[in-house]
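Quick illustration, no need to memorize.
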Amino acid sequence: MKYILLLVALLSSKIFIGELQAQRLDADSLKKVLSTTENDTLLILTNLKLSHILYGTDPDESRKHAQNALILSEKTGNEKGILNGNKYVGISYHVQSNYDSASFYLNKAIVLSQKLHLPIETARILNILGLSDHRTGKPQEALEKFYTAINIADSLKSIPLNISISNNIALLYRQQGDIKKALEIYLKALEWPEEKIPIIGRGNLLNNIGIIYKDQQRDAEAIEVFTQAKAAYTEGRHRLGILSTLVNIGSLQTRKKEYTKSIQSNKQAIILARELNSPYNLTLAYMSLGKTFGEMGRYAEAKNSIKKALEIAQEKELLLQEMDAFKILYLLNKQQGLSSNALQYYEQYTLLKDSLYEKERSDKIAELNALYEVKAKNTENTLLKKEKELNENALQISEAKLQKQYTAIIASVIVVVLLAVLILLLTRNSYMKKEANKQLLEKQEEVQHHNEILSEINQKLSETNYEKESLMHVVIHDLRSPLNRIKALMDLLKLTGPLNEEQLQARQLTLDAVKNGSSLINSLLDIHDFEKEDLTLNLNTIDLKSFVQGLAEPFNQQASMKNISISLKSEGNVDIRTDADLFTRVVDNLISNAIKFSHPNSQINLSIKQADKKVVFTVKDQGPGFDEEDKKRVFRKFQKLSARPTGGESSTGLGLYIVHLLVKRLNGNISLESTRGEGTSFIITLPKNLNQETLTRAADPIENS
């Protein structure tokens, strides 16, 4: 009886099951309540409370109590009980990485939460569903759910829920490589007063900060926060969190070559993951153990551990863990010189990686299309709203004028007949004004309509350009994957045994092609960055003579292969304030081009002169020169000119376009002097003292005509 009174007292003080976070009620005490009461409402609440307490330590037992509550709630028509029963059944499946079953029950719960107008429950369930999407390789769906949930949490001013969702959003940023953004979110969440942060939520934040510190090689700080996280999980009796810190500490011990401690930590994690029936964490523990064995040279044990992780990941469709397992098996076989096995695992790794990136890219394109459709719909609604307002205003004006006329007529009848003429004149004047106002209103509406059309066209052009830039950037990045795969295959080819001369030559031609392709990709990415209007310049003062001399020196070896000499002439020491990084790209491109297009046994002359508040830098070669048609196209993208490299070198047709673009960014000008057959001089004029006040907007990039 005392246990029933205890539970009733807690419930009467407005502590509802969805908001109970401190796990202070003893599970045994609650089980005694179940055995001593026949009250349906009390049985439902007690089962739900037990499910809430146990999902992090015993998910099977948690699910049993949630199902009991669900059955009794459906029998008695208790909709809140049905909602929470579905929620906790779904959470127990989620903990065990059974994401399909979890999604089934959680989506049923979310429908009920919306029907019952319980936004806090909607946000909690969206947060869990987003985490499931993240773990099954669906980052776009996860991010959409997280941001919907956090907007609800912000509107309700729920600090604990806000912290939980922020933690999961930071997980996504970390997975996508934005470590700085992830760490910023974690640290900001920890700024809340400690008493407002749930103990398990604090453990999650500390554990994830420790992972970032570990990745940044900040081992001392990582150990400190992992220890704090483990203490928080222990206080909250959250075995799942303790399991996560064991895996992370084991990984850190491996890096510090404390292999015995690492093996012990990982084996403890494996035992705990099995007890909790948590496949996701079991794969992490097995992979951590496998990496430890691999570093110790115990390859058989390492492969055995990784294959166990791979088997679980494939069964539970944990795509990211499956991809990591293939990569580790590839590296282990490569270290052993087993090229055939290494190649097999590498192909499986790259196929899975490409499929994940292809999905992410498709999601990005779909997101852009959806964004465009939403904006178009909003624009249409705005236009309809404005049209309605105009019609209503016109109607009000018309009614007011009619009332005025009616009043004038009544007044004219009451006053005197002698005023009839005056009334007619007033009426005629009113009519003329009305016609004039009508014509003016029509003209205003016509002008406004044209302005709205122009605005809509500009908006569509802006969106189309953004979509083109985004798609181009994604495609350029995706081109890296096949080139890297070809290079890896060429590296593995050396492991298969000695190659004859013809095979070596074919391998080198392939590597040269990969190098040229990578150079083209890098140039395209550079252009994408340099064409941005918000490019920030890093201004500093340099000694131009010493600076150019230092840049030219590394090219002497390349020039000597064609017996070309490089000389520098300067009018003393010339100081210039500019962006050294951008100017380096300009000089490197011009000297490289000069060597590429110069005849053997020739001279390249570099010169520096001062003119008023400007500096003139010239690169002159003795190559084939340009004709008049070439001069019109020399600074445009992808131009193949009549002059060809004299040593058979490759050319992307982007070098001089990048030079022109960067010189404009530096507030300078570039010109050329050339006669066919007599060489070329590229002349660059830059301000001596470039600063933010004198910096003007760079000229628009030159496009192909």
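The CA atoms of residues 625 and 679 lie 4 Å apart.
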